[in-house]
Amino acid sequence: MIFEHLDTYGHEQVVFCHNKDVGLKAIIAIHNTVLGPALGGTRMWPYDSEQDALNDVLRLSRGMTYKNAVAGLNLGGGKAVIIGDPASDKSEGLFRAFGQFVESLGGRYITAEDVGIDVNDMELVYRETQFVTGVHQVHGGSGDPSPFTAYGTMQGLLAALNRKFGNEDVGNYSYAVQGLGHVGIEFVKLLAERGAKVFVTDINKDRVARAVDEYGAEAVGLDEIYDVNADVYSPCALGGTVNEQTLPRLKAKIICGAANNQLVNNAIGDEVEKRGILYAPDYAVNAGGVMNISLEIDGYNRERAMRMMRTIYHNLTRIFEISEREGVPTYMAADRLAEERIQTMGKLKLPL
Ligand code: NAD
């Protein structure tokens, strides 16, 4: 049954990591290493079942292959999940045991932070293996990736504005930004600096107040964000917010934000295209974070990181060109760009 799964997704290797003494149950999935070692974060989550954990790690690791490929990185895709509650199940032993498993893969998998994991956990993993990014800056880490993700999102937006309106005058357009967390608030700041009209919403009132007071944004209700008269809808909170219920309400001509998995499914991606809305594929737009940590592998350099973020503009432009040339929606064009790059590297044919 497991190999059937691996056939479907095209994985190279899946490692089940077990250490009874420290209560470690983890799965590391290496999807594809054609472009280089598999880079992807470790998620800690109290999964309802082991099957759910396996499904999640297979899906997420495959996503990393595509994200890293489109980002132009010489890195493959992988991901790890630790089954457990981040609020109660963390211990030094757990993370060090996990680090030993990462080390045992000899660099085929490089880990990083993801949901439920913070830099202090990564420090413990780092004691057992060098194949880890997202450690403290004193160890050559790159710190919080969110400002880079926001800057990368701005590069994606510039490419989208150019494609849709033939200019990059950010300040001439209006924006509906959903989610004012680490990335969202930085993105609002970049928009405000360029003189843009910005509508914002967040479940956290303090964050909304900050966007209003510091950046002159206009607050709207949580549900109202889908109805505002904005040129660009920018999801920066949850996934799946572009769906059957919300899409008919959107007035935006562009969807461009940092959230992962914005389209609830591919059919919605087709519908977005049909309605003439330009969708800037999420994993191409929000690659700033992974680009930033990728630089830790060779020794982190902030200047290089900023230059790298700017390649997001070109990646998006290429995706829009493929979409037009091949007559496919942009979400599909992004996948094609990734697959083309991997196939050009030639060593392994992905099941497409
Ligand atoms: P975060 O947790 O700091 O912020 C998320 C914000 O969304 C919070 O302020 C939260 O209150 C708000 N929110 C939650 N539900 C909401 C709702 N229904 N309506 C409005 N607001 C809501 O997360 P983040 O690091 O800013 O990441 C935002 C998104 O970008 C996530 O989808 C994340 O996966 C993705 N992303 C982040 C990075 C990064 O560098 N942090 C990189 C790539 C992708």
How would you briefly describe this protein structure?
This protein is an alpha/beta fold. It has helices at residues 2-9, 50-70, 92-104, 119-126, 146-165, 182-193, 205-215, 266-274, 282-285, 288-294, 302-309, 311-326, 330-344; strands at 13-19, 24-32, 38-39, 42-45, 76-83, 109-110, 174-178, 197-201, 218-219, 232-235, 254-255, 278-279. Helix 5 crosses helix 6 (182-193), helix 5 crosses helix 12 and helix 6 (182-193) runs parallel beside helix 7.
Q: What features would you describe in this structure?
A:
This protein has 352 residues and is α/β, with parallel strands linked by helices. It folds into two domains: 131 residues, Leucine Dehydrogenase, chain A, domain 1 (Rossmann fold, 3-Layer(aba) Sandwich); 189 residues, Rossmann fold, CATH 3.40.50. Helices cover 43% and strands 15% of the residues. Strands 1, 2, 3, 4, 5 and 6 form a six-stranded mixed β-sheet that branches. The structure holds nicotinamide-adenine-dinucleotide. The site of nicotinamide-adenine-dinucleotide has 24 residues, from helix 5 and helix 6.
Q: What labels describe this entry?
A:
globular; 13 helices; 12 strands; 352 residues; 43% helix; six-stranded parallel beta sheet; Rossmann fold; 2 domains; binds nicotinamide-adenine-dinucleotide; alpha/beta
Tally of DSSP β-strands: 12
- The CATH architecture of the largest domain would be 3-Layer(aba) Sandwich
Give the CATH class of the largest domain.
Alpha Beta
Uncertain segments:
none
